[in-house]
Amino acid sequence: MATAHPKLGLRPFLPEDADVLAEIFRTSIMDLTGEDYSEAQQQAWASAADSVPAFAKKLGNQLTLVASLEGSPAGFASLGPGGKIEMLYIHPAAAGQGVAAMLVDALEKLAGARKAEKLVVDASDTARGFFEKRGYVAQQRNSITVGDEWLATTTLHKPLAAKPEAS
Length: 167
Ligand SMILES: CC(C)(COP(=O)(O)OP(=O)(O)OC[C@H]1O[C@@H](n2cnc3c(N)ncnc32)[C@H](O)[C@@H]1OP(=O)(O)O)[C@@H](O)C(=O)NCCC(=O)NCCS
Prior knowledge:
Blueprint lengths: L7 E5 L5 H15 L6 H8 L5 H10 L1 E7 L2 E9 L3 E7 L8 H15 L4 E7 L3 H6 L3 E10 L2 E11 L8
Parallel strand pairs: 4-5
Antiparallel strand pairs: 1-2, 2-3, 3-4, 5-7, 6-7
Bound molecules: coenzyme A.
């Protein structure tokens, strides 16, 4: 079971994180998704971080959180408008230690504070089981084009519990 890890930390994204997060993005895709996607699909997907300034701009325009393990960035996740989880990428060396769970816990709380009614994610086939385990329910399968490649994803939703009004 992924338990609270004493060496795990969480903080907002800073512009100077861009290089290391681009590297985590690429390595995560190339090392963790090979059972679900071909190498050509992985390369096309990972190329979204080829321009680090453009990648940093995307992260800066979303609510992006950086997770650290023993003080080093180990993964990141971002929330866009409408409670949509846009990115979730964990460094392979940090996988299986509860880093993604900590990031998504935080995004769910932030989305709730922004009064989102639900969380939405277009999950990779690699991440789908992670989200289903957290109560996300599959709505539809998608085929998205990335460069010359088609990638299958699944849209999942998780309703956020309505909080009782304070009286
Ligand atoms: C999917 C991913 C985010 C999971 O990250 P992680 O840090 O290894 O996950 P955690 O350690 O936080 O896992 C939390 C729980 O989910 C479970 N889990 C993780 N990945 C799972 C999967 N693919 N299927 C089913 N359960 C999964 C873990 O076993 C753990 O369960 P536990 O609490 O009972 O121990 C990571 O593998 C990744 O970055 N993949 C490649 C990039 C990607 O596909 N990103 C998603 C884009 S939408």
